[in-house]
């Protein structure tokens, strides 16, 4: 696709489906009485959205007059008359820091949950609108209809693509160059199936980890939500139904999804898994040392740069998962399907302490006869089975073959065009309120 065509495509995505002008909405004066908002959320993405909303509440031209929070119950025990939390959602922690009232529904269904009174009944009236971001629980029609202006949801994908619980992780794993944020109505029966109010694109940085995407997309989602609140009724009148023929769904991930499958994963695939899960479940694989099989976690890894020659010039003669090292080289190199290589610099073996490459080599690799990682544990009473290549697989003839299909210049141009459009529309991927809070934490 030509750069000009990509620029036009990015500009179309930046426009909200309602075609409202971000520049025009910025000129609208704030109402005499701002909105009373009940925010539903739990995780880091919701935390970033809440920061932007609270920044508007406390700003010079607020559209939000009062806000309270609904989030999962925290777990704690008392020590010296102080609460020590064993679990506390990011949203709960931020709400307490900002002095917002917090409500905890009981675990399970929300069918019997009642919308609370504003400030415990000290403020007359009822909440104007409910805003949901990564709440993780189904909200029945009774709750949706209990707000004067209904409820809206902030979802980190360009719906109808990637409905469900893990749109950011799925976008990284699929190697998508662009994702985005959608503001939608809450549908009473279909999760993430409501009318689309607004969307904005987000170019996914090529090496960015999951945490960075959560921070930046959450910030972007909060800013877009404020823009929608400024012209809500007009935008609702021009909302659009989702195209059901374009729907795709995501699923919950578990530990099994971070296992390296050498028989089908390229170096790029492994790195995407690392970017997605490294904070909670690092990518891991097996190695056999004599009569034992040990699990190895890669805590830090990267794809070998194209211009970096391999440690072993004949590495293509070895099966994927083969380990190479060299004295004074600060990484362990592992061959992958397709001729690519990964460089690992931090390890943890079977729950032991972290190891750097030199410690890993001295403690494990030198005593390791086969020097090949394997996908699954095997019966150590038998020889390690030969590597099973995919059917029809053709071995590369040069290590540069792994980089032929990666057009990084084209990706860079697309990212630059989209970021320019976001800036011109008044968005910022760096949240000032977030930065201030981080300074306070220090």
Automatic annotation (TrEMBL):
<protein>
    <recommendedName>
        <fullName>Methionyl-tRNA formyltransferase, mitochondrial</fullName>
        <ecNumber>2.1.2.9</ecNumber>
    </recommendedName>
</protein>
<dbReference type="GO" id="GO:0005739">
    <property type="term" value="C:mitochondrion"/>
</dbReference>
<dbReference type="GO" id="GO:0004479">
    <property type="term" value="F:methionyl-tRNA formyltransferase activity"/>
</dbReference>
<dbReference type="Pfam" id="PF00551">
    <property type="entry name" value="Formyl_trans_N"/>
</dbReference>
<keyword id="KW-0808">Transferase</keyword>
<dbReference type="InterPro" id="IPR005794">
    <property type="entry name" value="Fmt"/>
</dbReference>
<feature type="domain" description="Formyl transferase N-terminal">
    <location>
        <begin position="126"/>
        <end position="228"/>
    </location>
</feature>
<dbReference type="InterPro" id="IPR002376">
    <property type="entry name" value="Formyl_transf_N"/>
</dbReference>
<dbReference type="InterPro" id="IPR041711">
    <property type="entry name" value="Met-tRNA-FMT_N"/>
</dbReference>
<dbReference type="InterPro" id="IPR036477">
    <property type="entry name" value="Formyl_transf_N_sf"/>
</dbReference>
């Amino acid at each position: 696709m030509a750069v000009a065509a990509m620029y036009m495509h990015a500009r179309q995505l930046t426009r909200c489906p309602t075609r409202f002008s971000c520049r025009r909405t910025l000129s609208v004066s704030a109402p005499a009485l701002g909105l009373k908002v009940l925010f539903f959320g739990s995780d880091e993405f919701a935390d970033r959205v809440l920061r932007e909303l609270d920044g508007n509440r406390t700003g010079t031209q607020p559209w939000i007059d009062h806000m309270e929070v609904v989030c999962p119950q925290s777990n704690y025990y008392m020590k010296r008359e102080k609460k020590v939390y064993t679990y506390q959602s990011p949203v709960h922690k931020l709400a307490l820091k900002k002095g917002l009232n917090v409500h905890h529904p009981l675990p399970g269904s929300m069918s019997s949950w009642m919308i609370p009174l504003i400030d415990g009944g000290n403020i007359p009236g009822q909440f104007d609108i409910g805003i949901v971001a990564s709440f993780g629980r189904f909200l029945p029609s009774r709750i949706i209809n209990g707000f004067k202006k209904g409820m809206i949801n902030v979802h980190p994908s360009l719906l109808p693509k990637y409905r469900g619980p893990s749109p950011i992780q799925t976008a990284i794993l699929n190697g998508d160059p662009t994702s985005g944020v959608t503001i939608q109505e809450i549908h009473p029966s279909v999760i993430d199936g409501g009318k689309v109010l607004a969307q904005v694109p987000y170019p996914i940085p090529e090496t960015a980890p999951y945490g960075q995407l959560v921070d930046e997309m959450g910030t972007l989602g909060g800013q877009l939500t404020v823009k929608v609140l400024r012209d809500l009724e007009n935008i609702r009148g021009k909302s659009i139904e989702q195209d059901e023929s374009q729907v795709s769904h995501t699923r919950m991930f578990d530990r099994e999804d971070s296992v390296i499958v050498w028989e089908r994963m390229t170096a790029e695939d492994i790195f995407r898994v690392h970017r997605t899960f490294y904070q909670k479940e690092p990518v891991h694989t097996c190695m056999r040392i004599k009569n034992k099989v040990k699990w190895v976690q890669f805590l830090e890894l990267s794809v070998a740069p194209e211009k970096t020659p391999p440690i072993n010039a004949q590495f293509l003669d070895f099966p994927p998962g083969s380990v190479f090292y060299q004295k004074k080289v600060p990484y362990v190199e592992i061959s992958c399907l397709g001729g690519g290589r990964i460089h690992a610099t931090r390890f943890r073996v079977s729950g032991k302490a972290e190891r750097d490459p030199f410690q890993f080599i001295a403690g494990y690799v030198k005593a390791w006869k086969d020097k090949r990682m394997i996908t699954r544990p095997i019966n150590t009473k038998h020889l390690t089975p030969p590597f099973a290549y995919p059917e029809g697989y053709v071995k590369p003839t040069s290590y540069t073959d792994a980089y032929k299909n990666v057009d990084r210049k084209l990706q860079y141009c697309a990212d630059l065009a989209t970021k320019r459009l976001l800036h011109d529309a008044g968005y910022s991927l760096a949240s000032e309120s977030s930065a201030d809070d981080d300074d306070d934490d220090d």
